[in-house]
Amino acid sequence: MRPVVVIIVFIGILPAVLTQKELQIKYQQTCRPVRALIFWHLNMIKYIFDVQRHLISRIINNTREGTNIRLDVIDTKVRNVLSMKKDNTNDWIESITKVKRGSSEQNIIPYKSLVGTISNFTNETVSVATELFFVVNDKSKLDDDEIAIKELKRFKTYVVFYGEKTPPKFWTNLATDKHRLLELNDNFTKFLNLTCQDSKLQCDTNRYWTGKECRTYTFICSKTYTEASPYCVQKCPYFRHRDNRRDQPENVGCNSLVPHDKLIYVFSVSVLILMSQLLR
């Protein structure tokens, strides 16, 4: 009986090991092309403006060829300064260098203009991830922040904050999580690595990819993190408690869900049940 039990244990462990190996290989892959929409709230202070421009350049440079990039600056209004599909040239640099310092008198970012731009940019149905970037300062604020949080939180959202004070609560909450909020002296390389990681997740943070389409997370996850199965947590990297804490956003996100993984999970559970019966 013991050899049989050993074999069964080995078979039960093997799928889990293979799954972890697959995950490691998946995250070691290079970035994929995405739809990257960048909003840059301009500032009159030269050193803040220069640092922001440098960070935006690094974000664009980090994206893969084939990425659809749109850069809108916000001054007295929202206006587009760059719209392109990235290739192996650096022609986009000229568009950024032409941007001049400026700031609206009240530092108000019009929410309706943002939503209109985002809607137009994401209107085309393509099987790539969408990433939003907000490059802001300590005076930046939206004219309707409550609605903005509800509507924008479903996107993979990054906040690049540079100013003379700490980030206001709105911007810390808008970022998908605390790791996707970049402040002064933060590790920018790790920040860029997250954008690369997220490029592999085709759906918004509250959906998962079935192999054919995006579906709501409720198909595989419970309402709360404490009740979630390990399978849900593994496939949904953004799944958190549905509370208001900064590092646990209301929305959740799911990774690719493929039939192969389902079979591994079901098989592993079946083996464990069989083991328990044999060991009695």
Characteristic terms for this protein:
6-stranded mixed sheet; disordered N terminus; alpha/beta; Rossmann fold
Largest sheet: 6 strands, mixed
Indicate the proportion of strand residues: 15-25%
| CATH fold topology of the largest domain | Rossmann fold
- In one word, what is the shape? globular
Order of helices and strands: HEHEEHEHEEHEHEHEEHH
The CATH architecture of the largest domain would be 3-Layer(aba) Sandwich
| Secondary structure: number of strands | 10
Mean pLDDT: 76
CA-based gyration radius = 22 Å
Strand arrangement, major sheet: 3-2-1-5-7-8
The CATH superfamily of the largest domain appears as von Willebrand factor, type A domain
- Termini separation comes to 12 Å
Number of domains: 2
Brief overview, please?
By secondary structure, this protein is an alpha/beta fold. It is 40% helix and 17% strand. The protein starts with a helix and ends with a helix.
Describe the protein's architecture and organization:
The protein contains nine helices and ten strands. With 280 residues, the protein is of the alpha/beta class. It has two domains: 88 residues, no CATH class; 164 residues, Rossmann fold, CATH 3.40.50. It is 40% helix and 17% strand. The strands form three sheets. The chain has a six-stranded mixed sheet, sandwiched between helices.
Q: Could you outline the blueprint of secondary structure elements for this entry?
A:
Elements: H1 2-28, E1 35-41, H2 46-62, E2 68-74, E3 78-85, H3 92-97, E4 108-109, H4 111-121, E5 130-136, E6 141-142, H5 145-152, E7 156-161, H6 169-174, E8 181-182, H7 188-198, E9 207-209, E10 214-216, H8 230-235, H9 259-278
Parallel strand pairs: 1-2, 1-5, 4-6, 5-7, 7-8
Antiparallel strand pairs: 2-3, 9-10
